[in-house]
Design brief:
heterodimer; A: about 850 residues; alpha+beta; six-stranded mixed β-barrel; 22 strands; elongated; B: about 375 residues; mainly beta; 13-stranded antiparallel β-sheet; 1 helix; globular
Chain lengths: ~850, ~375
């Protein structure tokens, strides 16, 4: 028996439903695939950068961004555990007249050869001593291409507020593909980039037979606080950890789109199976085995899923390619600055995403297929049995249990930095809400029963009597509305909070800074004096940025030193300040410090400043949306007293009353070489920050749109199938005297009611999920809190539009069925 | 003579310098900043045993024959170079690469059939590498070359061998050329200050395959410094230093044209307990007798020689044929530096070291 046309061909006969199911799966797979591909590309690039920097060393000594005392090199190199030590000073240099920065490593070519040969410079033939020269820079081949320079060319880079010319002397044969890597002699970098006496890294090769773990313990003991020993993998993990939470969040959203797709397959199959009951009974009667029927029905879903998976993977790769070109490797989130990753072809990942699509299709088709296969042919050959639909089997009791479990899941602590409990809570919430749908449908039907119009009463009665139908149509709506509403609530809360936060942290009239790159752009003491003396400047507050290493294996913590009042009132504080400090100066910590290091207000802590452990007391916690690995803020005077470092990175300028911003800005810029100082106005910084924010969430807006399309598609497909199955009912109603118009009106109300149940449930579930996203997922993933803001108006408009669209979809779906003559329709039953 | 050697190792130190434009190119901190080698300078010891950091390049070059307890012979070579780069003269960084120290160590082992060798290079500073003035003293990491009076000590630890040797001098330094002013070419601007310490009594330990062996023997030390260039026309050189069994000492070298003909030759001979005799270029001749082809590089070296010094005819035969030093992986420099037996009138009269460069590509200049 050739059955393929009977079963798989049925997909072609219900094109709309098949198309919608397929599209939903395509979108789910595509989003997941895109997120995966983009992040793999970015991480591969990032990993390659780290590999060449961390490379073949056994252990690496790292410290604050500002570096550590170079005499540690002599100390470590002389240790018996160490076979060779390679000192390095790393600066981020800005190219004059470019946006790009280069990662410039000052290296000692002699020791490097024994520890990290991959970084050795390759010279062009004529140059002797180029690797020791003070003006020779070696650029990886990819960086030469990116900057459009060749050996022999001159590169203008910025150091402090001055710029200097470097000669491109050659490439880095061991790190050809690194687009940002440059190498110079260590003495040249120290002298020319104001790093005298400082190192940022020492790579170690251990003596033969020395275990890295033992050496690490022994060497750590002789190092000052704040200087740590790491294994090379730690750096790579740091980078992966940083973006992992963001990546996992996006992937889970994609998984939810896929789930919705599976749901849509389910509802389309469920209804299609009901319509084809007689057909199946006939097939069974002429000898088709129960198992074959089941398998063929599964194959229908599998075909839709496979098609969706293949198209989705292709679309996902296309999206990834576009996203890399437009947004960069972190989809605009800013984790991989300066990297231009290229897409990698990963057969395994592609195969697994296609398989996920297939799985969604099969899973969606499973229940309807089992249902259809279990029906006795004799009974099914009798007509009038269509009303039985799968679904709606869950009790309200089960639903309540799931919802309570979801509440409990919110208290699960993060696992490896991932908010597992939050995700579990969301899944439980969705499942519980779907199970609760029949009860909600009945409740809503009862509430609406007192209506006067016949179509209205009929629609309400149907909702009460056959909640299974409502569940099939409404479940898709619920899931998609819940997703969209949750994202809207989370994004609105986040955006409003960021907006307020920007107001608080940008109080000055404008800001002055040297270059984009923090480590080479700084304002020295003389320049600070000149800035303060410019007429029209009422006050200037300077800020020094650095980073500290507080624990091995953890990412560096940002150090901000700036004038801060005793009670920290100008900071975006969270909770109460603890001002009594027992004589120690105050440190104000970001929320991430509390989460990652367990610091609490009132606690006494030590910060490694200039190689000494300085005691501080935690005065309060402030909100920081800029640095998710943690930031500590101390008073600039304390910082200078403890470190003796007179440099700063930027200045906040307040204008004297009546001074013109433009003329003061011009006078300030004139205090240094042309082009070396930048003025930024709070408005600009704000617009830029919010622009970055919106770009980051561009992907989630896309997901919301997808969710809505999926929800509507669900309503349309369900009603198309239902209406066809209910031709007999419509004929009967016509005989009883209802006009075609009244039946249409009844269908519209049924559609609106079914969708209404879904929308209502979706809004409630969405609000709960939004709360979980704000209070659990964001706090655990990114360590920042936000104030809850609900976009009432847009949610209301969204809900109303969805109801109207659902009604329209139901009418459009029913029109086909109503066109038939009443007599004919009724006769079918006899 | 042996600026040749310096060359090689200076190059060896810095990766991928196959160019070897070496001393020619005008550098920052140009040639006039370096101290000049002039005739008439009187070498004073122990001061001139120490480093002369104002000069461009300087080396201490110890070679010799050692005997294991069972009488088996070994050759050893230990070289320390000090190199002033002319760079970063006013850079305040403690890493400023003004002075480099480079070192090379080798053991010629007949059982192994070839050389064990290793090298080190570093800029001075941070106690990692440095040199002393006033007496001989150089170090890179745990490699060192130190002097106490007439007593020298050399220590080197490589991946597959190590040695720690004491060398004791019994005779005053042997000055080459005109009281240590050694001319390298017809143009007297090509010159160096150069003296040797022949007939050093050697004793100590050589570690092979992880096992230390006590050794004794006789060694030769060269100390030479200069700022000037080698002549453009030189393709390579042959150098010889011999501790004669009767207590005498002989040094001879020649520079070759591209066609192999001599460009310049010189020799110094000092009989036991006698005065040094400086020989004219015409009194020195090198004549190759047997060639050996390196399987690694394909280069053909003359490994047996007939050398005429005045009226004496010496025959040179190598301890092993394969004493080639192949450091192409890091530098492209390939040369032959090895222990040789010296015979005269059919009997053995001494033990020496022979160095030959420029037999593959043109070695320098």
């Amino acid at each position: 028996m050739r059955l393929a046309p009977v079963f798989l061909g049925s997909l072609a006969r219900r094109r709309v439903a098949t198309l919608f199911s397929c599209v939903a799966i395509v979108l789910g797979v595509a989003l997941g695939m895109a997120v995966q591909a983009v992040h793999e590309a970015a991480l591969a690039e990032f990993g390659r950068g780290l590999q060449t920097v961390a490379g073949e060393a056994d252990l690496s000594v790292v410290g604050p961004r500002g570096g550590f005392d170079e005499n540690l090199y002599a100390l470590l190199a002389a240790r018996p555990e160490v076979a060779a030590a390679s000192p390095m000073v790393e600066v981020e240099v800005k190219l004059a007249g470019h946006e790009e920065t280069l990662q410039l490593l000052g290296i000692d070519v002699f020791t490097l050869a024994r520890v990290r040969p991959a970084l050795l410079p390759g010279t062009s033939a004529a140059e002797r001593f180029a690797a020791l020269s003070e003006d020779a820079i070696f650029l990886a081949a990819a960086a030469q291409t990116a900057l459009g320079v060749e050996p022999g060319a001159t590169l203008r880079v910025q150091s402090g507020t001055r710029s200097l010319n470097l000669r491109v002397a050659g490439d880095l044969p061991g790190a050809r593909d690194n687009r940002r890597l440059a190498v110079m002699d260590i003495a040249a970098v120290q002298a020319r980039f104001a790093r005298l006496g400082r190192l940022t890294r020492i790579d170690l090769r251990l003596a033969e037979g020395v275990a890295p773990a033992a050496a690490r313990t022994a060497l750590q003991a002789v190092l000052p606080v704040g200087v740590l020993i790491e294994t090379p993998q730690a750096a790579a993990n740091e980078a992966a950890n940083l973006s992992r939470a963001y990546r996992v969040n996006l992937t889970l959203l994609a998984a939810m789109a896929l789930l919705t797709g599976g749901f849509l397959v389910f509802s389309a199959q469920a209804l299609s199976v009901v319509r084809r009951r007689t057909e199946f009974a006939f097939l069974r009667a002429i000898g088709l085995a129960r198992r074959s029927l089941f398998a063929w029905l599964l194959a229908e879903g599998a075909l839709v899923g496979l098609l969706g998976g293949v198209l989705g993977a292709a679309l996902g790769l296309g999206l990834a390619w576009g996203a890399l070109a437009l947004l960069g490797g972190d989809l605009g989130a800013g984790y991989f600055s300066g990297l231009q990753p290229s897409l990698q072809f990963q057969p395994a990942a592609i195969a697994s995403y296609v398989a996920l699509g297939l799985l969604a299709g099969v899973a969606g088709a499973w229940l309807p297929a089992r249902e259809a296969a279990s029906v006795a042919p004799a009974q099914a050959l009798k007509a009038g049995d269509e009303a039985r639909l799968p679904g709606g089997g869950g009790s309200a009791g089960q639903a309540i249990v799931l919802l309570l479990a979801s509440l409990a899941a919110c208290w699960i602590p993060p696992l490896h930095g991932l908010p597992v409990g939050g995700y579990l809570a969301i899944a439980l919430l969705l499942a519980g809400s779907v199970l609760l749908l029949p009860a909600m449908a009945t409740l809503l039907g009862c509430l609406l029963r007192a209506r006067r119009s016949v179509p209205g009463r009929l629609a309400a009665a149907r909702l009460i009597a056959a909640p299974g139908h409502a569940v099939v149509a409404a479940a898709g709506v619920l899931v998609s509305v819940a997703l969209a509403a949750a994202m809207a609530i989370m994004v609105t809360s986040f955006r409003e909070s960021v907006d307020q936060w920007l107001d608080q942290i940008l109080p000055a009239d404008f800001y002055l800074r040297a270059g984009r790159a923090n480590t080479s752009g700084h304002l020295d003491a003389a320049l600070q004096a000149r800035i303060g003396a410019v007429s029209g400047v009422a006050s200037s507050r300077f800020t020094r940025h650095d980073s500290l290493r507080l624990a091995a294996g953890k990412a560096p913590v940002a150090l901000i030193a700036r004038p801060v009042s005793a009670d920290g009132r100008e900071l975006p504080l969270v909770g109460k300040a603890q001002l009594a400090g027992g004589g120690n100066p105050a440190v104000w910590i970001s929320e991430a410090m509390r989460d990652l290091y367990g610091w609490q207000p009132g606690q006494q802590v030590a910060l490694p400043l200039a190689g000494r452990a300085e005691r501080f007391h935690v005065a309060g916690i402030w909100r920081d949306y800029a640095r998710q690995t943690g930031a500590v803020l101390i008073d600039l005077a304390d910082y200078r007293r403890m470190t003796g470092d007179p440099l700063v990175n930027d200045a906040a300028i307040d204008l004297a009353p009546g001074a013109s911003a433009a003329s003061v800005a011009a006078a300030l810029i004139a205090t240094a070489d042309p082009g070396s100082l930048e003025i930024a106005y709070p408005g600009e910084i704000r617009a830029l920050s919010l622009g970055i924010f919106d770009r980051t969430f561009a992907v989630t807006y896309l997901l919301e749109a997808v969710a809505i399309v999926i929800g509507l598609a669900g309503v349309a497909a369900s009603f198309a199938a239902l209406a066809a199955a209910r031709r007999g009912e419509f004929g009967m109603l016509r005989h009883l005297g209802l006009t075609r118009r009244q039946i249409g009106w009844m269908l519209a109300q049924e559609g609106a009611l079914a969708a209404g149940v879904g929308v209502l449930g979706g809004l409630l579930a969405g609000a709960a999920i939004g709360l979980v996203l704000v209070e659990v997922v964001n706090r655990q993933s990114f360590h920042w809190s936000m104030d809850l803001h609900i976009p009432w108006l847009s949610l209301a408009i969204f809900a109303a539009a969805l109801l109207a669209l659902a009604a329209l979809a139901a009418v459009a779906a029913g029109r086909q069925a109503m066109r038939q003559e009443a007599v004919l329709a009724v006769r079918e039953d006899w | 003579m042996s600026r040749r050697r310096a060359l090689l190792l200076a190059l060896a130190s810095l990766p991928a310098w196959r160019a070897m434009a070496v001393w020619a190119g005008p550098q920052r901190g140009a040639a006039e900043d370096f101290a000049a080698v002039v005739p008439g300078y009187k070498l004073v010891f122990p001061r001139d045993h120490g480093a002369h950091p104002d000069f461009r390049i300087e080396w201490w070059y110890a070679t010799g024959w050692l005997s294991l307890a069972d009488g088996r012979p070994l050759g050893f070579q230990s070289t320390f170079f000090r190199l002033r780069t002319g760079l970063a003269e006013d850079n305040p960084s403690a890493f400023a690469p003004r002075q480099l120290v480079l070192a090379h160590a080798a053991i010629a082992d007949p059982q192994w059939g070839r050389l064990h060798h290793d090298q080190r290079a570093a800029r001075t500073g941070f106690g990692r590498a440095g040199f002393a003035t006033g007496q001989t003293g150089l170090w890179i990491g745990d490699w060192r070359f130190a002097q106490h009076g007439e007593h020298y000590r050399i220590e080197a630890k490589a991946a597959d061998f190590a040695y720690a040797l004491d060398l004791v001098a019994a005779a005053p330094p042997l000055l080459h050329g005109r009281s240590g002013y050694s001319v390298k070419a017809p143009d007297p601007r090509h010159a160096s200050y150069y003296y040797s310490r022949p007939q050093l009594a050697a004793s100590g330990t050589v570690t092979l395959a992880g096992r230390p062996h006590p050794v004794t023997g006789r060694a030769w030390l060269d100390h030479e410094w200069s700022s000037q260039l080698l002549p453009e026309a030189a393709q390579g050189w042959d150098w010889l230093g011999v501790n004669l069994d009767d207590g005498g000492a002989l040094m001879a070298f020649r520079l070759r044209h591209r066609d192999g003909s001599p460009l310049w030759s010189a020799a110094t001979f000092r009989p036991a307990g006698g005065q040094a005799q400086v020989l004219a270029p015409a009194d020195v001749a090198f004549e190759p007798l047997r060639h050996w082809r390196s399987g690694r590089t394909g280069i053909v070296y003359p490994v047996e020689w007939r050398v005429r010094i005045g009226r004496r005819i010496l025959l040179l035969r190598p301890l092993i044929d394969d004493q080639e030093l192949d450091s192409r992986a890091s530098t492209g420099a390939v040369y032959w530096e090895g222990a040789v037996r010296v015979a005269e009138d059919g009997r053995n009269v001494g033990y020496g070291y022979l160095e030959m460069t420029g037999y593959g590509e043109k070695i320098s200049i």
